[in-house]
Amino acid sequence: MAGSVKIFIPCDAAAISVGADDVASSVVAEAARRNANIEIVRNGSRGMLWLEPLVEVETSKGRVAYGPVAAGDVAELFDAGFLEGGDHDLAHGITEEIPYFAKQERLTFARCGIIDPLSIGDYEKYGGLAGLREALKMAPAAIVDTVTKSGLRGRGGAGFPTGIKWKTTLAQQSDQKYICCNADEGDSGTFADRMLMEGDPFSLLEGMVIAGRATGATIGYIYIRSEYPHAIKTMHKAVEMFKAAGFLGGDIDGSDTRFEIDIRVGAGAYICGEETSMLESIEGKRGQIKVKPPIPAISGLFGKPTIVNNVLSLATTPVILAKGADHYKNFGMGRSLGTQPFQLAGDIARGGLVEKAFGVSLRILVEEFGGGTRSGKSVRAVQTGGPLGAYIPVSGFDVAMDYEALAQSGAMLGHGGVVVFNDTVDMAKQARFAMKFCEIESCGKCTPCRIGAVRGKETIDKIIAGEDRAKNLEILDDLCDLMTDASLCAMGGLTPMPVQSAIKHFPEDFGG
Amino acid sequence: MAALINKLEHEGARAICSRHGNKPEALLEILHKTQQADSYLSDEALRTIADALNISRAEIHGVVSFYHDYRREAPADHIIRICRAEACQAVGSEALAAHAEEKWLTPTGGVSADRQIGLEAVYCLGNCALGPAAMVDGELHGRVTPERLETLVARRVDEAEGA
User: Fold this and answer.
1) Do the Cβ atoms of B28 and A267 come within 8 Å?
2) Do both B54 and B110 map to the same domain?
């Protein structure tokens, strides 16, 4: 199609949820009506979700952005000459010059929103496969060493050094080892795994093959939650294409490396984001957690050495191998090296994905990138790190977003979610919800979590009702300490974090 | 209890198990596919799966009852799942759910009297920047207002009736 104009309309689930498919049909129909020669590319999302559906037109100056575009706007856009990048109320100029995008440091998400997610040609053209080709020339221990030196830590939430985990599995003697990708992204306020799987799926597959070569694993599983139908579909197609292109199976890219990947779909259980629970689920069992040790890196899936890594951790290893450990660790600060894809959600004017070096302040994320609330009300609290993370008041917004600084202030980074609440939020209700969520999602294995959540919810109900408040707050605090100390995993162990932080920072909502 | 002691074979479930090599580790996938075909998991299906995989019905019950996705009864014609997690709470999902409960006269977790609408809670659909999020018959929607939800559901009902 010589002379055709390329138009990018995301196939990302968030974009589709606000009408991207309808916009694509409209653009096709309108172009046909006007005999315009166009080619539509369904790309991933750029992560500027408040502008979705974000339509981009390729021009000689670069890609010009229009958004949020409704199907009804399309004829008007053609009238305004958008095929040549013409001006319109919805136009935002060159996409990459939009401050929200321009100020980011994109390593993990370097290609997301730029390429056709299911084009291996595009993938390679924009730097894909370079990391794998480098890894195939290296000895397993050298790959592990590079990942260790990069400072990469588990992006699922726990922040354990990825290289150390790989080293443990590499050292095991076993007839079979596994790489399990945790794509059970259940934290409210997080969508980075989903965006990456839908927008740049090959980067995850490449990362898994690298992990396989580095540790001696030959079989990989991607465990995707059932709430992500678009991601499941894209990953299935990506696995088939990667295999057909010779990057899965035997003799990968002419080397002696062998690796296969299978996709497993969850069935609606938040707890399956916990690694031992996820492994049980992949084995076809109840997703009940297991006591550690043994750690999965030594005895995991089917009792074999198993690497469990988050989507983002695995998808970041290709760029580390391609550009070197030093390049990666030059981003970030202290012991939090590299970049973190932060996800801005809730009542926020400019919600979306912001990949920045560790150390950016919460204030910059919420105010500069996020632009305050979408509702126009003032911000009262932010919850970072998902449903098990702390509520932070506005006075705490200068905290640097890295593992240690957040932990020191009594909060956590988790998977990088930032959920903004306006001044109408009732923090006692939020604390109650934390307990209720734990009650719904507890696997039931240990008593502090299974029973503690129920008692916690009941006690907060009494506090809300004004029943003997001082005494019940004391009971709640004691219960929270017990859950923190005695639960087997993070579900029961961290549920007290939102509860206690809400009481600490917003005592007025608890009758204090 | 009659249904629990029947010995009826479920041919569809048997075929699905066979396609997965009758491997117990494929149980979740087998349950997903059986439910997709039948809309719920019947006694016959579970008994057949237990037989094919050579595991006990108690084990299958343990798995089915653990996960929120699996249903043991026929669902409503149309299923609305409203995200009730924090990011959507911050932009009014509780009010949206309350509206839906009033509009279709069913509590969350229940079905309308004519069995046309089923209302479910879901904890995160990964659309947290564009909340409130909801799924209507498996289709994801963002920035859902009460009015928009009614329109979306009406469209699904009309499509089904027109078909």
Assistant:
1) yes
2) no
Bridge partners of A343, per DSSP, are: A353, A417
**Signed CA dihedral, A393, A397, A401, A402: sign only:** negative
Cβ atoms of A271 and A441 within 8 Å: the answer is yes
Q: Quote ipTM for the complex.
A: 0.96
**Partner residue opposite B130 with nearest CB, options A18, A194, A437:** A18
- Among positive and negative, which fits the CA dihedral A480, A426, A423, B96? positive
Inter-chain CB proximity A347 and B91 less than 8 Å: yes
Tell which CATH classification among 3.40.50.11540, 2.40.50.320, 3.40.720.10, 3.40.50.2300 matches the domain A120-329.
Answer: 3.40.50.11540
Strands (E), A350-493: 352-357, 379-384, 391-393, 417-422
- A17 contact B CB<8A: yes
pLDDT exceeds 50 at position A1: no
Q: Can you give the residue range of the structural domain that contains B21?
A: 7-66
Angstrom distance (rounded) from CA B45 to CA B10: 5
B88 part of contact set with chain A, CB < 8 Å: yes
Residue A263's CB: how many other CB atoms inside 10 A?
Answer: 18
User: Sign of the CA dihedral A30, A35, A38, A42?
Assistant: positive
Q: What is the mean pLDDT of chain A?
A: 97
Q: A46 and chain B: CB distance < 8 Å anywhere? A: no
Is B72 domain-assigned?
Answer: no
Is residue B75 less than 8 Å (CB to CB) from chain A? Answer: no
Confidence of residue A511 (pLDDT cuts 50, 70, 90): confident
CA distances (Å), B156 to each of A227, B24, B80, B120, in order?
20, 37, 11, 17
Residue A70 half-sphere exposure toward CB, CA atoms < 13 A: 3
- Domain range summary for chain A, segments of one domain joined by +: 5-102, 120-329, 339-422, 427-510
**pTM: predicted TM-score of the whole model, two decimal places:** 0.97
CATH no. of A5-102 = 3.40.30.10
- In chain A, residues with a C-beta closer than 8 Å to the C-beta of B109 are none
Q: How many CA atoms lie within 13 A of A371 on its CB side?
A: 13
